Amino acid sequence: MSHLNLFLDIGLALSLKNSLSMKLSLLALPIWCLSLSAILIQASLTESTSFVFNGFDSRNVSLSGIAEVDGRLVRLTNTSAEQLGRAFYPDPIHIKDASTNVVSSFSSTFVFCITPVPGTMGGHGMAFLMSPTLDSWGISSSRYLGMLNASQNGNTSNHVFAIEFDTVKDPEFEEINGNHVGINLNSMISFNSSEAGYWSPSANASKTVIILTSGEPIQAWVDYDGQRQQLNVSIAPTEHPQPFIPLLSVIVDLSNVLKEYTYVGFSGSTGNIVGTHRVLSWSFNSNGVAKSLDLSKLPSVFPKTSFLATTRFKVLVSFAVLVPILTLGSLLGLLLYKRSQREIVESWELEFGLHRYSYKELVLATRNFHEKELLGVGGFGRVYRGVLHKSSLEVAVKRLSRDSNQGEREFIAEMASTGRLRHQNLVQLLGWSRRKGEFLLMYDFMPNGSLDKLLFGKSTIVLRWEQRKKIVEGIASGMLYLHEGWEQQILHRDIKASNVLLDADMNAKLSDFGLCKAI
């Protein structure tokens, strides 16, 4: 509208200027009209959306996962493991001119807060997100931050743009550390990233690091110039103004990333490491500079202390129930001691960084190892299909026989090898469990089972020659990684059709590393 006002002022000046003749004014009038028409046509082609939320209610946002409006703020996640939450502006935003394929110059600023569970580093992170859909079905939690899943990662058909605030380092995604801000285009591997912080405005500019999991409110700014294709990202504590020097400043063409209409909002997730991710306020403009936030109206992250939470009340209650508390405390201590003896953390578990699942979790996942969930039987035990209740993740659970030849030594050997190996043609080990001498391993579920059943069994699936070639190439790729691609050479020593598993796309993955040997 500033351009429109300018042309109106010019037209008025031309009409009032006493020194010009009426003829000159009449000549200028068509030019003024043409310019005004161009401005009006361009304005009609771009629908601008602008809003400011100095606090939220359920009408402001569309929620999915475990996200909820808590008071006047949006809580994306809580302290539940393997969960995700997403909160979007409920209406789609017109962000790109279909006729010119030019993305609008959009801008956003928001205040967020990441609070870890006391005594932990907190995880996994959150993101400012532009997505073509509100649907969170199939989206993964944990390291995917509620943005994508493994099969979507890197696909140009995602049309997803995000600014991630990541608090757990994942080497597979080439992340610089566990406290960074990144620009993501259809992928979990950042287009550009930097350690979280802000630059001082002095002549000798220095960077001050911000700990994303400090529990303190942090303000972020995201500004995109559609004509210059320049993206600037900044963060700072709420008591600081927007830094003059952006944390990230890159030239990036979003015209092939974003669709004409997109949804804008936030996502966050937890894994085995948990934390609470909150959005306190938010301003957005799809075609111009976002309006400033009123930081004096920020909702409180922590509720005000009432009388029920005062020291006086606590002392009164403590004296009133002292004896029952001591009794219950003794019983609880006994139960915790028994549990600690049953769930002892092994030294090699810490070394290899694998998650230990409780035996109860795997019993629930496999429906108490029901025969209908049985996938196969081998010399070392049985393999069951399971579904984790918290994340709905489909897994395969290998239950080793107590009288099998694969004892604790082989069990640890398989964990030591597969627990650190990462390759597209190796079955991914997700975790383990142990109870009274019984060992269990949990892997990615392979829908098409083992290769031997397709080749020699009664399967109705007939492998085409292209599929057979793809499977052989996958086996070779996995073996090449074991022999030459990892930090240490690994000999599988048990390559056979029954140890080659096939995923939904008929990609071959080597499994069963119980006999492997490092050389």
UniProtKB/TrEMBL annotation:
Tell me where in or outside the cell this protein is found. Cell membrane; Membrane
- What's the EC number here? 2.7.11.1
Query: Which Gene3D superfamilies does this UniProt record tie to the protein?
Result: 2.60.120.200, Phosphorylase Kinase, domain 1, Transferase(Phosphotransferase) domain 1
Molecular function terms, GO-annotated: ATP binding; carbohydrate binding; protein serine/threonine kinase activity
Enzyme superclass (EC): transferase
Q: Please give the PROSITE patterns that the UniProt record associates with this protein.
A: PROTEIN_KINASE_ATP (PS00107), PROTEIN_KINASE_DOM (PS50011), PROTEIN_KINASE_ST (PS00108)
What keywords are assigned to this protein? ATP-binding, Cell membrane, Glycoprotein, Kinase, Lectin, Membrane, Nucleotide-binding, Receptor, Serine/threonine-protein kinase, Signal, Transferase, Transmembrane, Transmembrane helix
Membrane-spanning intervals of the chain: 315-337
Spell out the reaction equation it catalyses: L-threonyl-[protein] + ATP = O-phospho-L-threonyl-[protein] + ADP + H(+); L-seryl-[protein] + ATP = O-phospho-L-seryl-[protein] + ADP + H(+)
Recorded topology in the membrane: Single-pass type I membrane protein
Q: Where does ATP bind?
A: K398
- Kindly indicate whether the keyword Oxidoreductase belongs to this entry: no
A cellular component annotation (GO) from this entry: plasma membrane
Q: Which residues form the Protein kinase domain?
A: 369-519
The record's SMART domains line, in alphabetical order, gives: S_TKc
| Presence of the UniProt keyword Nuclease in the record | no
Annotated InterPro entries: ConA-like_dom_sf, Kinase-like_dom_sf, L-type_Lectin-RKs, Legume_lectin_dom, Prot_kinase_dom, Protein_kinase_ATP_BS, Ser/Thr_kinase_AS
Mostly located where? Answer: membrane
Tell me its family: In the C-terminal section; belongs to the protein kinase superfamily. Ser/Thr protein kinase family.
What is this protein's record name?
non-specific serine/threonine protein kinase
- Look up and give the organism this protein is from: Adiantum capillus-veneris
Q: Which classification does the entry list for the species? A: Eukaryota, Viridiplantae, Streptophyta, Embryophyta, Tracheophyta
